[in-house]
Amino acid sequence: MFNLSCNAMNRKIFKAEIDFPPWFSQESKEMISMLLVADPEQRITMSEIKRIPWFRKNFTPPVAFSIDETIASPPEPPAKKKKKGKNTAEEDDGVSPRSFNAFQLISSMSSGFDLSSLFEIKRKPKRMFTSKLPAISVKERLETAAREMNMRVKHVKDCKMKLQKRTEGRKGRLSVTAEVFEVAPEVSVVEFCKSSGDTL
Predict the structure, then answer these.
(1) Which interval of the chain is the signal sequence (predicted)?
(2) Got the DSSP string for 164-179?
(3) CA separation (Å) from 74 to 8, 20, 78, 161?
(4) Which domains, from first to last, does the chain contain?
């Protein structure tokens, strides 16, 4: 094979012709051949590969985190005395969202000012949006929307939660971490960070 001319080699590559080593099993040869099909419409997909018995041997699908039904609901927060005067929703429920200052807001909303790539080698894809609601209200709405979308919810801390799709997608179960930050009493920032699964 290595004695072929460049033209002959290019023809074999274009036709997806490959010589397998003798120690390759028949099942692995068939799967690789289906991966090398030139026509993308006829090429085997990831979901089809996962159904091949040879591929499933000793295969454990990667899961960024697992949400158990028994811990899907957060524990009851300890009773907290109400202060005299005007109280926010966060004070009543004992929830303290992390604050988001002006510099963080500018850098996160504008890619030109985001310098995190200079310090972080591996960055997970993130999506952010703002809301004119208190952080606790946004958190409650996110949880309601997630359950309506058939997702499991696990509360990590205060206004941070992990969401996981119950069904398998093309790239596995969609797992997302969502956190609500407080910019002002009536302004919040929501950050979504995908851990695994299909693209957001």
Answers:
(1) none
(2) EESS-BBTB--EEEEE
(3) 64, 54, 12, 10
(4) 6-56 (no CATH), 69-196 (3.30.310.80)
Whether 189 contacts 181, CB under 8 Å:
yes
Burial of 181 per CB tally in 10 Å (0-12, 13-18, 19+): buried
102 neighbors 164 (Cβ within 8 angstroms): no
Closest CA to 64 of 172, 168, 142: 172
Handedness of CA 58, 152, 97, 158 (dihedral sign): negative
Q: Counting beta carbons within 10 angstroms of the beta carbon of residue 60, is it exposed (0 to 12), middle (13 to 18) or buried (19 or more)?
A: exposed
pLDDT in tens, 72-103: 444 444 444 444 444 444 444 556 677 666 55
* Interval 96-146: pLDDT, tens: 677 666 555 655 555 554 555 555 555 566 777 888 888 888 888 988 988
Phi, psi torsion values for 192, nearest 5 degrees? -110, 130
DSSP 142: H
Query: What phi, psi does 194 have (nearest 5°)?
Result: -75, 135
Spatial distance between the Cα atoms of 163 and 2, rounded to a whole number of angstroms: 51
Taking the C-alpha atoms of residue 116 and residue 107, their distance in angstroms, rounded to an integer, is 9
Assigned token pair, 192: 């979504």
CA–CA separation, 60 vs 46, rounded Å?
Answer: 15
With tokens 């090429």, the residue in question is: 43
